[in-house]
Write a structure and sequence with these properties.
The protein contains 15 helices and no strands. The protein is an all-alpha fold. The longest helix has 31 residues, at 2-32. It starts with a helix and ends in a 12-residue tail after the last helix. Residues 4-10 and 35-55 have low confidence and may be disordered.
């Protein structure tokens, strides 16, 4: 009798998975058949996202059935789920079309995505991250030096500054590292270890970066809010902040190795440890952790699929998805809601690269920005030349 029950439960689970996969496939096709892809124009109203009112009713019904079949605990707004997935599909589509057909504008029929800048759903496709991955992170991926190299680069997060730290020379915004450079070679890896990224010297770095600033004005990214330490010169202040972590790097890495051996390392722990240092808040620490996730330090972290550092935009996006006041504080059951959203998203976006909790958190922030643009809520800051 018990065996029959187990077989029955097993068949039931298989049927549920197959039904979810079928519905998810229909949802994905429905997103691609959405009117925005056919070039229609829309007028947003203050109270509703009118661009979804033309959404095929069968698509909305498919999403409802899909959510019910999944058995998730969280109750999501169906239209906001549709909008969230639509944004991820179309924004990733812009990335692919721009990459493969750079001269064939427009890369989208969506008027909002044509006019305003939105970051990629996948942080790994970001221009600066691609450069950092190629020239710093991947070559040092399995070396202890990758820890400080990541922290140092992300504190500036500017490609010309990265080149300065690698070469020990000043570089203009149009400069490039030699195309013949073999970043996979042992020689290059050893060079990185001996550079300021691997062998930090605060005095030398400060002098070199001040010279870079004098020649080319900019040494910091415009994407991050990087504040100077107290009343010090910004370059000197950041170098001092790096000094404090540099002095404790070996102790931190020893802790990481012990946690890794006991299968207890988590992204949340690393983020929390970084936040104890002056100058590293939640946002910057999370950016660093998101890079370390692809190195020996955190590639086996237990919470890659279950934890994220939700910022203000992500909180607003999640609140909107849950149908509560977008300006409300963090939803008490946010962890479960995020897990459920990830669980629902993976089958729908099965043709995409792997989706982790980082992509969900990041896309919630951009989803919030996208819906606000449609509703005329607030002012967009950065334009995009997608027309």
């Amino acid at each position: 009798m018990e065996n029959n029950k187990l077989q029955s439960d097993s068949h039931s689970e298989i049927e549920t998975v197959e039904r979810m996969a079928s519905l998810a496939s229909s949802i994905f096709r429905g997103m691609n058949d959405h009117a925005l892809f056919r070039g229609k124009s829309y007028i947003a109203t203050p109270q509703s996202l009118s661009y979804l009112t033309d959404c095929d009713l069968s698509l909305e019904e498919n999403i409802k059935q899909y959510v019910v079949a999944s058995g998730v605990q969280t109750v999501f707004s169906i239209k906001d789920l549709a909008t969230f997935w639509y944004w991820m599909i179309e924004r990733h589509g812009v990335h692919l079309r721009r990459k493969n057909f750079p001269t064939q504008k427009p890369w989208t029929n969506d008027p909002i995505l044509r006019q305003w800048f939105f970051t990629n759903p996948y942080r790994e496709n970001d221009k600066t991250t691609e450069w950092f991955r190629t020239y710093i992170r991947d070559p040092l991926k399995y070396d202890d030096e990758v820890f400080m190299a990541t922290i140092i680069f992300r504190w500036f997060n500017f490609i010309p500054t990265g080149m300065v730290l690698i070469t020990g020379e000043t570089h203009g915004p149009s400069d490039r590292l030699p195309s013949t450079l073999d970043t996979t070679s042992r020689e290059y890896r050893e060079h990185l270890k001996q550079s300021l990224l691997g062998s930090w010297d605060s005095k030398k770095a400060s002098e070199l970066l001040k010279l870079q600033r004098a020649k080319h004005e900019k040494v910091f990214t415009g994407a991050f809010m990087i504040k100077p330490y107290q009343m010090m010169d910004k370059v000197e202040g950041i170098c001092k902040c790096i000094d404090w972590i540099w002095k404790e790097r070996e102790s931190i890495l020893d802790q990481v190795k012990k946690l890794t051996l006991s299968n207890a390392i988590t992204l949340e722990w690393i983020c929390g440890r970084l936040k104890t240092f002056t100058g590293l808040g939640g946002f910057m620490s999370y950016e660093i952790v998101s890079d370390l996730r692809y190195t020996w330090i955190a590639e086996n972290a237990r919470d890659i699929m279950s934890w994220a550092n939700l910022g203000p935009g992500g909180i607003r996006g999640l609140n909107k998805m849950l149908g509560i006041d977008k300006e409300a504080s963090l939803y008490p059951k946010w962890r479960q809601a995020m897990k459920d959203l990830l669980f629902l998203s993976i089958p729908v976006l099965s043709s995409f690269p792997k989706i982790e909790m980082r992509e969900i958190e990041h896309s919630l922030c951009e989803f919030d920005k996208y819906t606000r643009a449609w509703e005329g809520d607030g002012r967009m800051k950065r334009t995009f030349s997608g027309k």
